[in-house]
Amino acid sequence: MQADWRAVERSPEFRELVRRRKRFLIPVTVVWLGIFLTYLLLAALAPDIMGNEVALGFTLGFVISAAQVFMTWIVTWMYLRRADRVFEPLEQRAARVATELTRTGREAR
Questions:
Q1: Could you tell me which of 10, 60, 70, 79 has the fewest CB atoms within 10 Å of its CB?
Q2: At 58, is the secondary structure helix, strand, or coil?
Q3: CA separation (Å) from 22 to 4, 85, 92?
Q4: Are 108 and 10 spatial neighbours (Cβ–Cβ below 8 Å)?
């Protein structure tokens, strides 16, 4: 039997999954992109500032570059933690509902 993807999409379980993912991903993406674009703009438009020594011979450009790497690791860790604790249970519930809708051929609640 073919799945009724529109019914699955309308199910409260699937909508909750999408809503929770967006609520996490959009702010994280905006913050990460903002910091990354600031770094790129500083590197392109203010190389003299990026060359200033901050501490122990490290330049501001190096510190910000290292912060980008660490921030990527932190965001990845945050996503994996959220995926295990929040998204995975929601995915399983949405999958059960999708299976039930497909098996019975009924409309979402």
A1: 70
A2: strand
A3: 23, 16, 18
A4: yes
Query: Rounded mean pLDDT of the chain?
Result: 89
Query: What's the confidence (pLDDT) of residue 93?
Result: 92
pTM of the model: 0.74
Give the pLDDT confidence score for residue 105 in this predicted structure.
65
CA distances from 55 to 50, 68, 82 (A): 13, 18, 35
| Residue carrying structure tokens 């674009």 | 37
Task: State the Cα–Cα distance between residues 64 and 18, nearest whole angstrom.
Answer: 33
Classify 6 as helix, strand or coil.
helix
Residue type, 78: M
Residue 107 clears pLDDT 60, i.e. is over it: no
